[in-house]
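User: Can you predict the 3D structure for this chain?
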Amino acid sequence: MKFKLDENLPVSAASVLAAAGHDVDTVSGEHLAGRPDQDVVAASTAAQRVLISLDVGLGDIRAYPPGSHAGIVILRITAVASSSHPWIEARPGHLGGFDLTTVASRVLGTTQVVLARWSA
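Assistant: Here is the predicted structure, written as structure tokens:
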């Protein structure tokens, strides 16, 4: 799968996905950090990459209707116990307990919100 990680996710998440065999770019690595969401979605779409973000604004299907992009996955994390990013797990290809290959295969061209709960 081809992914683009938004700037609100740690760069280390790219290594997790790459270790699982995915082709991963980051918003920061492409000098898109701080750019409007529309620019990030346009860059992801042009590269045919599923965008993974924590930004709930990307879930607005009026602004980003299904089929107008390569796919958007919005991770929603609740009850985070620390300021680190505990949803990045050691298992390759998994973020927050979700196998992103499975999630992405269902998200192509659509927007999905993925919920993860963590005990404090």
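The two ends are 32 Å apart (CA to CA). The chain has one domain: 2-117.
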